[in-house]
Design brief:
The chain has 491 residues and is of the alpha/beta class. It folds into 2 domains: 345 residues, Alkaline Phosphatase, subunit A (3-Layer(aba) Sandwich); 115 residues, no CATH class. It contains 18 helices and 14 strands. Strands 5-6-4-3-7-1-8-13-2-14 form a 10-stranded mixed beta sheet, sandwiched between helices. A two-stranded antiparallel sheet has the order 9-12. α4 runs parallel beside α18. The radius of gyration is 24 Å and the shape is globular.
Length: 491
């Protein structure tokens, strides 16, 4: 017994002396070695950027309120998954992560600093991603996003850069990855920051990619098409897919891109790994636009349903994992002005996102109207049509807030025009539009604390092969380890 105790003491001392990176590697190897029988052959990883329980719960309340006044919840498809867990999101430098360090944790199992993609905090060592491991194991790989393909989250599966703003480098690495399917938003710097570099689109063609940017050409794609780079014909702010609120009948959806990805990737004996990002949930929450965020969560859920349909046809081979990289906006159900009441049916009155209103209504008005002649009254019909907000139904205080924000947007001089005050009021967005969405949200009973990310945990859901691995309360780095174990990857 004494010898056993001494052995335990020695082992504990060795474990304490082992560097953190070595311990993490040993844990991954142990997870892989002890993987349950059977391999997840078809693996989906859906990331709702900026999505935590507030965004999920708000969407569930909204879907109920649209059709009923009952105090109940209509669950989304993925919140009915058999296994759920909570995931911490802090990175190597802060409790409030950004998308770059968050995706590094999810995709590689390593912590890094905000702004860094798949490199250590010193920006010297690079990390291999779950997608690269899968590709080396013979699986086909697809990356889909509703924002640009060189944005932090999609880039986190194929790129290693010291700064997420190195868009051209990310795009070049995308082509060099050899992954079979990239689809969704566009590219921010296809010829470099100064437009003096080799064209990445041509580079992709030279590397054997079929470049698609029309709906008809996209629909015509069939298995055997080879490597594909498909960019949506309609791009909105900064080269992204339109918000779901603004999507027209001719625009492809996140579900369309997911369905086509399955079609093109599934003709492979070793299976596939497909990651899909609902990126504009985050963008809407940065702008405190609950209507846009909720509708993009619905679009995200619709894409997941496509994967669920596939899983039902391949129940012994498929794993679907849903998570968020962080929460955005400090969104909550509850506002001081409505106390214990919510009126989510009012969110359904919104027809345009904040960005569509800016582009289609406010910007043309500012361009064509001299400041001295500008009046908020000119825009009230368009505000009511786009947001369902009737100026005459607002309190005097709310009316004054709109007038003040309108003057800010038109560029009039206003007392105490201090940059910090401006940020706290409008977050760097168009003042009038943000104030409209804030009043909309408040009357519905939705609150916000930030125009940035917050540090709360996110929810993770799983169904399929080895779904049991994803229950409990764990770190975002563990998602990599759990997926590697389920896929029986050799790390």
């Amino acid at each position: 017994m004494r010898k056993l105790k001494m052995t335990l003491v020695v082992l504990l001392a060795l474990a304490a002396a082992m560097p953190a990176a070595a311990r993490a590697k040993a844990q991954v190897e142990q997870n892989t070695a002890t993987a349950p029988q059977g391999r997840a052959k078809y693996v989906f990883l859906f990331i709702g950027d900026g999505m935590a329980m507030a965004q999920i719960s708000s969407t569930e309340v909204y879907t109920t309120a649209r059709s009923s006044r009952d105090i109940s919840i209509t669950k989304l498809g993925f919140t009915r998954f058999p296994v759920s867990g909570l995931t911490t999101t802090y990175d190597a430098g802060t409790f409030i992560t950004d998308s770059a360090s968050a995706v590094t944790a999810i995709a590689t199992g390593n912590k890094t600093l905000s702004g860094v993609i798949n490199m250590d905090p010193a920006k010297k060592q690079s990390f291999k991603t779950i997608a690269e491991y899968a590709h080396e194991a013979g699986m086909k790989v697809g990356v889909v996003s509703s924002v640009t393909l060189d944005h932090a989250t999609p880039a986190g599966f194929f790129a290693k850069v010291p700064s997420r703003s190195n868009y051209y480098d990310i795009e070049v690495q995308m082509v060099k990855s050899g992954f079979e399917y990239f689809a969704g938003g566009g590219l921010l710097q296809p010829t470099g920051k100064d437009k003096d570099q080799a064209d990445v689109i041509q580079m992709a063609r030279d590397a054997g990619y079929t470049y698609i940017n029309t709906r008809d050409a996209f629909n015509a794609l069939r298995p055997g098409a080879g490597k594909v780079l498909a960019i949506n014909a309609t791009l909105q702010d900064s080269g992204s897919l339109p918000y779901e609120l603004d999507r027209r009948s001719g625009d492809l959806s996140l579900a369309d891109y997911t369905r086509k990805g399955i079609e093109l990737l599934s003709d492979n004996d070793r299976g596939f790994f497909l990651t899909v990002e609902g990126g504009k949930i985050d963008w809407a929450c940065h702008a405190n636009d609950a209507g846009a965020a909720i509708n993009d969560v619905i679009a995200f859920d619709n894409a997941i349903k496509v994967a669920v349909d596939f899983a039902q046809a391949h129940p012994q081979d498929t794993l679907i994992v849903i998570t968020g990289d962080h929460e955005t906006g400090g969104m909550t159900i509850g506002f001081a002005g409505t106390q214990y009441e919510t009126f989510f049916d009012r969110v359904a009155l919104q027809k345009k996102s904040f960005i569509a209103f800016n582009q289609e209504v406010l910007s043309p008005y500012k361009r064509n109207t001299p400041k001295a002649q500008a009046k908020l009254a000119d825009l009230l019909p368009q505000i009511k049509d786009a947001f369902g907000l009737d100026y005459n139904d607002l309190s005097k205080f709310q009316q004054e807030q709109l007038e003040f924000a309108f003057q800010r947007s038109m560029g009039d001089e206003i007392e105490r025009s201090v940059a910090e005050d401006q940020y706290l009021l409008y977050g760097g967005y168009e003042p009038l539009t943000v104030k409209i969405t804030q009043i909309m949200n408040q009357t519905a009973g939705i609150g916000w604390t930030s125009y940035a990310h917050t540090g709360v945990p996110v929810s993770t859901f799983a169904m399929g092969v080895h779904q049991e691995l994803f229950g409990g309360y764990y770190d975002n780095t563990d998602i990599f380890k759990k997926m590697a174990s389920a896929m029986n990857l050799s790390l």
